[in-house]
């Protein structure tokens, strides 16, 4: 519950930051359908050096305002996959579950192609 509220608030703040970045570039409020080129910087980090960490984050910032416009948290671990792989692998419904889950999982976790059948958590 708290994480969902925090996520919604973060999304709203980033939308407002995009509008401020557009305003900074144009010097006036943008029209609702207007596309504005915004100069951004990108940086990222992992929890530990050397990409050995399971978690990392990338951040897009406006070069004009310095505000965060977007961010992406990356994880090498999908807890649902870890649980299913350990407890259910080899059971009849595992393949059915995996077929439903893999698309959602691959959107969140970049390692997923090597996950099925090859990863132990
Ligand atoms: Zn998964």
TrEMBL record:
Short name of any one Pfam family annotated for the protein: Mutator
Residue ranges of every copy of the Mutator-like transposase domain listed in the record: 3-89
InterPro entries xrefs: Mutator_transp_dom (IPR049012)
Full protein name: Mutator-like transposase domain-containing protein
Source organism of this protein record: Holothuria leucospilota (Black long sea cucumber)
């Amino acid at each position: 519950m708290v994480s969902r509220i925090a996520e919604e608030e973060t999304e709203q703040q980033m939308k407002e930051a995009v509008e401020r970045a557009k305003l900074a570039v144009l010097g006036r409020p943008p029209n609702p359908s207007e596309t504005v080129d915004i100069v951004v910087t990108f940086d990222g980090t992992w929890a530990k050096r050397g990409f050995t960490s399971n978690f990392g984050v990338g951040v897009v910032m406006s070069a004009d305002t310095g505000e965060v416009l977007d961010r992406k948290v990356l994880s090498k671990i999908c807890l649902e996959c870890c649980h299913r792989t350990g407890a259910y692998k080899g059971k009849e419904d595992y393949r059915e579950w995996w077929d439903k889950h893999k698309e959602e999982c691959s959107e969140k976790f970049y390692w997923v192609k090597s996950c099925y059948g090859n990863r132990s958590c």
